[in-house]
Amino acid sequence: MPDMSSTTEISYADGKILQHTAGGVGVVTFNNPDKRNAMSLEMWEGFGEALTALRDDDAVRVVILRGAGGKAFVSGADISQFEKVRHNAAASEEYAKRSATQRALFADYPKPTIACIQGFCLGGGMQVAMLADIRIASHGSQFGIPAAKLGIAYGYDGLRHLVSLVGPSWARFLMYTGMRIDAAEALRIGLVERVFPEDLLWGEVMGVAETIAQNAPLAIKAARITIAQVLKDESGRDMDAIKAIGTACMDSADFREGRQAFMEKRTPQFQGK
Ligand code: COA
Question: Are residues 60 and 123 in the same domain?
Fold first, then answer.
């Protein structure tokens, strides 16, 4: 059983991104509650730094993203920056490049990730949540992509994930109307996996994270790599990568430990090798 005591919080982007660990669980907090955790470029960069630190911490086996303040996960990009940094196509491309670098880091993240969503999850916040492996939300959450209300073209990656989660019809509905949907509807259409009352949300998310943290890391990696390949076109699939992680997993000390622990009726202690 990993030690679940928390480390002190490390701050990025002037405290608007926070990071701490609790045993095998890393937590990144979007911390700009006055703006419903709207993401500035500095926050995107801080987010990337926090993710990198948790990626490089061998003790961390799973990462949770959450929003501070109880009212929002992330309310999208910080619109107040748009006039300066995103006012036309050229500026928008530069803006997208800087934030996309951090999202790419998250999209290819080598550890399982969970979005813990309480309150508004909008626009770029939806993009972050959709990039997470798993989404768990509170009853009062609301989801939407108001790009059509602002005149913004939502990019390829965001829409690819939206379509893969909810299908083309719901993707069109959400994009054409810019409407927000509630947690019950998000659950029904497959945008989130589980929904809990506000006061139970964090405990439930930590419970899932701790379960993942105690499971065999190589087996989880095998699932992550294989599912990512399943989502690619057949022509682009890297079957060798699937074979390699399968071999590493089945030859691992952890597989031996898993078998032995089962036979000895005890909890396995996995090392990730
Ligand atoms: N960018 C910049 N500021 C934002 C923001 C965003 N995406 N979302 C919220 N804020 C700011 C508001 O301007 C307001 O600032 P103020 O206190 O200085 O007036 C503050 O956060 C609180 O927002 P408010 O609208 O008063 O709170 P609410 O609880 O009634 O509504 C939202 C919250 C998120 C539904 C609403 O603020 C909203 O629609 N935001 C824009 C969402 C959006 O379009 N996102 C996509 C961006 S690409």
Answer: yes
Q: Whose CA is nearest to atom 26 of ligand 1?
A: 35
Res 91 pLDDT > 90: no
What pLDDT is stored for residue 5 in this prediction? 64
Q: Shortest CA distance to 210 belongs to which of 80, 114, 101, 104? A: 114
Tokens representing 208 are 């899932």
CA-CA distance, 81 to 235, in Å (whole number)?
40
Element (H, E) at 240: helix 239-250
Alpha carbon nearest to ligand 1 atom 42, residue: 75
The Cα–Cα gap between 189 and 151 comes to 25
Give the closest residue (by CA) to ligand 1 atom 1. Answer: 78
Indicate if 65 and 79 belong to the same structural domain.
yes
- Is the CB of residue 27 less than 8 Å from the CB of residue 19? yes
pLDDT 10s digits, 51-81:
999 999 999 999 999 999 999 999 999 999 9
Same domain, 176 and 240: no
Residues 122-151 have a mean pLDDT of: 97
- How far apart are the CA of 38 and the centre of ligand 1, in A? 7
Report the C-alpha gap between 232 and 235 in whole angstroms: 8
- Answer yes or no: do 191 and 244 share one domain: no
CA 46 remoteness from chain centre: 15
- Taking the C-alpha atoms of residue 196 and residue 194, their distance in angstroms, rounded to an integer, is 7
The verdict on 101 and 234 lying in the same domain is no
For 244, the domain range is 217-263
CA of 90 to the centre of ligand 1 (A): 25
- Give residues (CB < 6 A) around ligand 1: 35-36, 38, 71, 75-80, 120, 122-124, 146, 150, 152
| Centre of ligand 1 from the C-alpha of residue 124, in Å | 13
* For the CA of 150, the nearest atom of ligand 1: 44
